[in-house]
């Protein structure tokens, strides 16, 4: 169960995306001005990957900063228990209530084939978390994450990980998005045994490798992922807006390395543009 919860934690981060406006191809950005005594850095991560090796410019930025802030405080000892509490649907809802009988059979088969267990054991889990359990099956390698690498750096440097929001904030999003929309995505994945999802994720990994944060976001508007494409206000926009004053508070106290999903960076309502609107100078760090 602990491994499943770890996968879900990473997957929680992965789903959040937004609309895009073209920016330089870079996942590392420098934040200056607006009263900051020292520069801070904003790094766009991808939460599930085959290779989470940190580039030299990212390592340099980590050396130049004195604290690391991620989307959530991932070394919070109470995070696993909070995750357990937030996994389940409200009002006694079950997966069978959300999909047709044929779709349910397809989903059950998907879980038996990929997880070695029947979905009947997870009837009241939110459909998004059921999908999240399957994320490691989208790549043909051992799953790595940049968040894990950043946490290693924090430990080496004796720094405590901090968060822009709480795990409760993130879990709440999946009560705002209709369970039926979440279940629709899961049923679609089941019908071709994750084939479409694997192809889409392979493309995303390539786009991320090229540091094309605009293209990365644009492809996440895929209508085949209903719970993402139709609910980006909850998934991203509102959260980005909430983050801006918190980023400012952290950066004014000390030079900070912010690590958030690359899907948060670009777009009219992306973190880069919102920081610029708030008076900060945000520039791409390009090798």
Keywords:
287 residues, alpha/beta, six-stranded mixed beta sheet, 13 helices, 49% helix
Task: Write a concise synopsis of the structure shown.
With 287 residues, the chain is α/β, with parallel strands linked by helices.
Strand order of the largest sheet: 4-3-5-2-1-6
Rg from Cα: 19 Å
Quote the distance from N terminus to C terminus: 41 Å
List low-confidence stretches: 15-21
Structural class: alpha/beta
Domains, number:
1
Describe what this molecule looks like in 3D.
The protein contains 13 helices and 6 strands. The chain is α/β, with parallel strands linked by helices and 287 residues long. The protein has one domain (2-284). The radius of gyration is 19 Å and the shape is globular. The protein starts with a helix and ends with a strand.
Question: Strands, helices and their partners?
Answer:
Elements: H1 2-14, E1 28-32, E2 40-45, H2 56-64, E3 67-70, H3 79-86, H4 101-115, H5 127-133, H6 146-156, E4 161-163, H7 167-176, H8 179-191, H9 195-209, H10 213-219, H11 226-229, H12 232-253, E5 256-261, H13 271-277, E6 281-284
